[in-house]
């Protein structure tokens, strides 16, 4: 494969085989039978003659000029013996039908009852604005050579041309080039192009990259490029690699929404939150007290994205809840509903002895789990907890000696809030680790998958034992947690849900 600046498409081309070879008998010399005894001189001369004959008949491979290069230069670039002229975008190509038939587009054109099948000059209409003369030059040239150089900066235009001409091999190689060169500058363009031209595997790779990097490697330019629909997919996913807590997802959305509304802003990432807060504070004065920004004409377009925030894990922290209330971005009805939901969950944990999830409910975990994370800059010993009230479950996370340990802290260490004294508590969780290269590509990763852990008071449990060879720092840790079991619906609520269209 080539470097990141270019990729090579190799296609099998039937080349004529050279004459001769080790199997044609030319490499062996037979001894001549002589009558009578052989003297020493006769044997030496006979051996010398045999060596000379072998040398003369052993083929020597000397590459003067490859057939592929000759074909490309003579037939494509020089247009010799051309039997058809292709005109497009004000340019002309003197080509050959036998080579053009490798393209599904031209194969159908020449073999069917189309009028072009008997024409020597064909005017191509190019409906796709991504296709330019350079892309057509490379696409046509790929029919005449083994190697096609694909620059990442040109891959979208070449993909567009390859799709129009139905060049499956070139389409596939464009997809491989895109997957190998995803980074902050290319990911959104690649994602959109993959959707346009039906490259589902590229689209999936771009989405994975964004889920891993949106929060871990924030970027002003990336925030500007992310569309509303794409951001909605990212924010709703349980696979979003969150750093710190859900409040940081809200903060990222606030910065992203500001850049969507003021795309001309070009300050640094450090200045972004301050600028966004000031901008939204100024807009608050223009609205009545009971209208949130997302309910305004400007904010309404972003409403569907913010619905995927897991607000229950934001209002569980006092400082975060105060910021949410102060910002007045989110409709008060949303918050009232979440406050009520969390109050009932707390009562169930305290008075109904809800000890936590009893079984793996993947749908519940993916849709409602707490998302949090931590960056370990270098190897060492770490112990931390994520902020917020978690129904009396004070979870301590320790990284030491390549182990990750969960501990249910009850009495041993100080805790900023109340803790549950129930003998046993369950927690559903998934733990993921990842290291990234400079382009944001994962270079090593581990996951526990979804599990349920039962802990007694002050009990700790190793949840991951890491092979030191797999660890590359900085190391990013992301967790999904569910502290309470899903609330069982009453018969009337279930009937109401089933009756909804």
Automatic annotation (TrEMBL):
Entry superkingdom: Eukaryota
Region of interest (Disordered), residue spans: 1-61
Keywords recorded for this protein, A-Z: Developmental protein, Differentiation, Nucleus, Spermatogenesis
Ranges of compositional bias, category Gly residues: 17-28
Biased composition, class Acidic residues, residue ranges: 41-50
SUPFAM superfamilies reported in the protein's UniProt record: POZ domain
Compartment(s): Nucleus matrix
InterPro entries, per the entry: BACK, BTB/POZ_dom, Gcl-like, SKP1/BTB/POZ_sf
Annotated protein name in UniProt: BTB domain-containing protein
Organism lineage string: Eukaryota, Metazoa, Chordata, Craniata, Vertebrata
């Amino acid at each position: 494969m080539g470097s990141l600046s270019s990729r090579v498409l190799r296609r099998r081309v039937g080349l004529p085989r050279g004459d001769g070879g080790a199997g044609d008998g030319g490499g062996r010399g037979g001894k001549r039978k002589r009558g009578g005894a052989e003297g020493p001189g006769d044997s030496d001369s006979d051996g010398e003659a045999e060596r000379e004959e072998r040398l003369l008949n052993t083929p020597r491979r000397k590459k003067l000029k490859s057939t592929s290069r000759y074909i490309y230069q003579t037939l494509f670039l020089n247009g010799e013996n051309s039997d058809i002229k292709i005109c497009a975008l004000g340019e002309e190509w003197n080509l050959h039908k036998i080579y053009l038939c490798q393209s599904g587009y031209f194969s159908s054109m020449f073999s069917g009852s189309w009028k072009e099948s008997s024409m020597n000059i064909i005017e191509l209409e190019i409906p796709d604005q991504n296709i330019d003369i350079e892309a057509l030059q490379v696409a046509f040239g790929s029919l005449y050579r083994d190697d096609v150089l694909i620059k990442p900066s040109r891959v979208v235009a070449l993909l567009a041309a390859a799709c129009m001409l139905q060049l499956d091999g070139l389409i596939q190689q464009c997809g491989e080039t895109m997957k190998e060169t995803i980074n902050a500058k290319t990911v959104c363009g690649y994602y959109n192009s993959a959707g346009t031209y039906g490259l589902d595997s590229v689209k999936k790779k771009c989405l994975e990259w964004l889920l891993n990097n949106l929060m871990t490697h924030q970027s002003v330019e990336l925030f500007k490029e992310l569309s509303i629909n794409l951001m909605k997919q990212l924010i709703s996913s349980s696979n979003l690699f969150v750093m710190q807590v859900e409040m940081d997802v809200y903060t990222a959305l606030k910065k992203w929404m500001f850049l969507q509304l003021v795309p001309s802003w070009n300050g640094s990432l450090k200045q972004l939150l301050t600028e966004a807060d000031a901008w939204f504070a100024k807009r608050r004065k223009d609205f009545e007290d009971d209208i949130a920004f997302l309910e305004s004409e400007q904010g309404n377009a972003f409403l569907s994205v913010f619905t995927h925030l897991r607000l229950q894990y934001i209002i569980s922290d006092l400082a975060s809840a105060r910021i949410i209330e102060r910002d007045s971005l989110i409709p008060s009805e949303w918050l009232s509903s979440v406050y009520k939901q969390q109050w009932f969950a707390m009562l169930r944990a305290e008075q109904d002895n809800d000890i936590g999830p009893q079984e793996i409910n993947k749908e519940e975990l993916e849709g409602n789990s707490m998302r949090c994370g931590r960056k370990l800059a270098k190897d060492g010993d770490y112990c931390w907890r994520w902020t917020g009230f978690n129904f009396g479950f004070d979870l301590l996370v320790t990284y030491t000696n390549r182990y990750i340990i969960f501990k249910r802290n009850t009495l041993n260490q100080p805790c900023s809030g109340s803790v549950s004294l129930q003998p046993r508590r369950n927690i559903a969780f998934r733990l993921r680790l990842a290291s990234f290269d400079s382009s944001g590509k994962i270079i090593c990763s581990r996951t526990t998958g979804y599990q349920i852990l039962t802990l007694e008071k002050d009990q700790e449990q190793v949840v991951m034992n890491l092979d030191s060879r797999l660890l590359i720092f900085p190391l990013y840790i992301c967790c999904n947690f569910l502290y309470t079991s899903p609330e069982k619906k009453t018969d009337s609520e279930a009937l109401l849900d089933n009756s909804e269209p």
